[in-house]
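Supplementary Methods. Inverse-folding protocol.

Structures were first reduced to a discrete structure-token string of length 282. This string, shown here, constituted the complete conditioning input.
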């Protein structure tokens, strides 16, 4: 009973973290919070809300901080640090996926998603309703992100179509869920790879534009990933400049529940802008 009461408190207090604009305060605070949530989960392992809160927190933390360290090392051409942070990001994403799995897999009546065929997965997803969207989204987000940070893992890459199937189901249930996150994922999914590896620039652009429409352009991370993936792969310098400017010129106050994410987007956009010449052929 105490754990369940505390779970509600932590879910509500999440707003405090989302509105933090000092990244040096946010990172250790969120990390400490995650371990406390995991300690609580040991005493109530079947608590769906708690498992999903942990999955969401690990997923968001990894995107915000672990992947950012990986990207920073990549830009600095520090291959040893890049590989270290890449491995860490993958491990943390898989941890997030496994917490979401505690809720999602029983709903699908499966024990291992990797052994399902795409058609089998589609059949399992048919009966899911909107009550399952949270577990479905965070499972797909975490699994897809883990695969995305380690593209040398051929087994992982073979599972990407299943992630796409799950995100399609999220969109069917509620395309605006979590700041239209399924559309943002699709923009990155199709925009960060060459056509030979399954990329599709037209679909990437369409997905980014759909996300911007649904979020009214206030989620600055969408502009950042638009520039980082589609604009670079399309070699569209004007597109790159336009979306980087959209991030850097936007006020942080325009979406208070995403101040932390928007602060991070500004930091990432500044760094990407400084390295523009690394990505475009003049």
């Amino acid at each position: 009973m105490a754990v369940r009461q505390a779970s509600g408190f932590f879910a509500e207090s999440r707003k405090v973290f989302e509105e933090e604009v000092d990244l040096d305060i946010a990172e250790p605070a969120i990390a400490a919070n995650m371990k406390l949530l995991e300690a609580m989960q040991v005493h109530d392992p079947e608590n769906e809300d708690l498992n999903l809160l942990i999955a969401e927190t690990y997923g968001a933390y990894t995107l915000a901080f672990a992947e950012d360290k990986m990207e920073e090392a990549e830009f600095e051409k520090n291959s040893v640090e890049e590989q270290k942070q890449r491995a860490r990001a993958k491990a943390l994403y898989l941890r997030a996926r496994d917490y979401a799995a505690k809720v999602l897999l029983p709903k699908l009546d499966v024990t291992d998603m990797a052994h399902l065929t795409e058609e089998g997965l589609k059949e399992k997803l048919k009966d899911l309703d909107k009550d399952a969207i949270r577990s479905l989204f965070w499972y797909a987000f975490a699994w897809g992100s883990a695969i995305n940070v380690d593209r040398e893992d051929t087994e992982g890459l073979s599972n990407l179509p299943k992630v796409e199937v799950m995100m399609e189901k999220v969109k069917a249930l509620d395309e605006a869920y979590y700041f239209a996150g399924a559309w943002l994922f699709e923009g990155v999914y199709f925009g960060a790879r060459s056509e030979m590896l399954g990329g599709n620039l037209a679909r990437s652009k369409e997905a980014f534009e759909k996300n911007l429409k649904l979020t009214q352009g206030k989620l600055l991370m969408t502009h950042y990933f638009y520039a980082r993936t589609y604009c670079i792969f399309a070699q569209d310098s004007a597109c790159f400049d336009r979306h980087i400017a959209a991030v850097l010129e936007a006020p942080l106050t325009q979406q208070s529940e995403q101040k932390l994410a928007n602060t991070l987007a500004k930091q990432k956009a500044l760094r990407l802008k400084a390295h523009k010449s690394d990505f475009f052929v003049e």
